[in-house]
Write a structure and sequence with these properties.
InterPro entries: Cyt_P450, Cyt_P450_B, Cyt_P450_CS, Cyt_P450_sf. This is Cytochrome P450. This protein is an alpha+beta fold. The protein has helices spanning 4-8, 28-34, 55-63, 75-80, 83-89, 92-95, 106-115, 120-144, 150-155, 157-167, 174-185, 191-214, 220-227, 232-263, 265-273, 278-289, 321-324, 359-376, and strands spanning 39-44, 47-52, 67-68, 148-149, 296-300, 304-306, 309-311, 316-319, 381-382, 404-406. It has 18 helices and 10 strands. Strand 1 and strand 2 (47-52) form a beta hairpin. It binds protoporphyrin IX containing FE (HEM).
Length: 407
């Protein structure tokens, strides 16, 4: 059976996807391709896709209103499955509130409502809490003693706790959403499994929304319930998107980022000795690691000329985040990790109207997380050979499944 991820994202040949010998570098085919142009026509599995590897071209695609994010209702998705199956996987109540898949002006309405909740003040108020959460996780890990799995004991709980607190989700329910989120993001999950997990998650979110309606708190979801006229399904869809986007991504950055620092001891030492580099280091790790490995995809709503090619109506475009973030016309020695590299414009958070809504929050979590990690565990080491660290090559968000460490 088809994998559910295939419906919203075209398949690319293995050599453009599978990371090679170095777990931090883009697929070898991708690096090779980047040497031969900036936007490429790829034929694979009977499909034809435009693959963007150039920085300027990526920004042009992502800022272009002719490029649609509606991956659910794209001509491609509609062609792959029957209308009956499409309606079963993506019923209207499931699409409600999922603004990552919407175009303007629908998208604009949700984005405005959310920006009103992701206020600078709320993010600033959250910083001391992020500090407390990071400290508590490190205290517990240190007390238990080495070896530890940094994913289980640090990288996953920190963003999960933070997003739970922000949204007003009971952290005790984490089993309910962590497992289902991984299932949703796995490249191997079939359409049938996706329908099942999607339904369960939606039920969980609807219950949560109803609880906030009965008994609102001062969390973000209660704020949306109180201040907007969004329907229950819209609220559940938004909560779902924030919960999923809010913990898996940052968790993988924290874990893969730590792995990368451990494999580059000089950079680890720089960060340890110069904590003021933390913000810079986070931007560099975002660029260097590009955990949105599969890229971000769009389809053309009309013919569009970009980067010297004509993208025809209904054609699919994939912006390869790993390739774009290593564009040598943008970054000198792009394949080097340098925590003191001057800050540039990476596309790890996307670009244009869909640029990551949670980026400020993610930055706070990573700055505090990496700073405290290297401060508290200055002699942190891998507890297994590097080639035994299990890589998330089976997931749409790249990272490590576990990171055994000692100190
Ligand atoms: C959108 C990456 C953390 C919520 C995006 C996009 C990227 C991204 C590349 C653009 C997708 C597109 O254009 O189709 C990341 C990375 C993160 C991170 C690398 C961590 C290091 C977060 C967090 C939250 C969040 C913590 C929530 C609190 C969202 C939402 C969108 C989004 C809601 C959709 C925005 C829209 O469509 O307007 N993210 N993200 N992300 N992200 Fe993040």
């Amino acid at each position: 059976q088809r994998s559910a991820q295939e419906l919203i994202r075209p398949q690319l040949p293995a050599e453009l996807i599978e990371r090679g010998k170095c777990p931090f570098d883009p697929a070898s085919g991708l690096t090779e391709l980047s040497g031969h142009g900036r936007i490429h026509r790829i034929e694979h599995n009977g499909e034809s896709v435009w693959l963007v590897t150039g920085h300027e071209e990526a920004r042009a695609v992502l800022a272009d209103p002719r490029m649609s994010s509606d991956r659910i209702n794209s001509p491609r998705a509609r062609k792959l499955i029957s209308p009956e199956l499409h309606a079963k996987i993506f019923p209207p109540e499931r699409q409600a509130g999922s603004f990552i898949f919407m175009d303007a002006p629908e998208h604009t309405r949700y984005r405005r409502l959310l920006t009103g909740q992701f206020t600078v003040r709320r993010m600033r108020d959250l910083t001391p809490r992020v500090h407390e959460i990071v400290t508590a996780q490190l205290d517990a890990m240190i007390e238990k003693g080495p070896p530890a799995d940094l994913v289980r004991d640090f990288a996953l709980p920190v963003p999960s706790l933070v997003i739970c607190e922000l949204l007003g989700v009971d952290y005790g329910d984490r089993e309910e959403f962590q497992h289902r989120t991984s299932k949703l993001l796995s490249l191997k999950t079939t359409i049938d499994e996706q329908i099942e997990v999607g339904t369960e998650l939606r039920k969980f979110m609807l219950q949560l929304v109803r609880a906030k309606q009965r008994d609102p708190g001062d969390d973000l979801l209660s704020g949306l319930v109180r201040d907007t006229d969004l329907t229950e399904f819209e609220l559940a869809g938004i909560a779902n998107l924030l919960l999923i986007a809010g913990h898996e991504t940052t968790a993988n950055m924290l874990a893969l980022g730590t792995f990368a620092l451990l494999e580059h001891p000089g950079e680890f030492a720089k960060l340890r000795e110069h904590p003021e580099l933390a913000e810079n280091a986070v931007e560099e790790l975002l660029r260097y690691l590009s955990i949105i490995s599969m890229g971000v995809s769009r389809h053309a709503k009309e013919d569009a000329e970009i980067g010297g090619v004509t993208i025809r109506k209904d054609e699919t475009v994939v912006v390869s985040v790993p390739a774009v973030n290593r564009d040598e016309s943008q970054y000198p020695d792009p394949h080097e990790l340098r925590v003191d590299r001057p800050r540039g414009h990476h596309v790890a958070f996307g670009h244009g109207i869909h640029q990551c809504l949670g980026q400020q929050l993610a930055r706070v979590e990573m700055v505090v997380g990496f700073t405290e990690l290297v401060r508290r565990l200055p002699n942190l080491k891998l507890a297994v050979p590097a080639d035994e660290v299990p890589l998330r090559t089976d997931m749409s968000i790249y990272g490590v499944h576990a990171l055994p460490v000692k100190w």
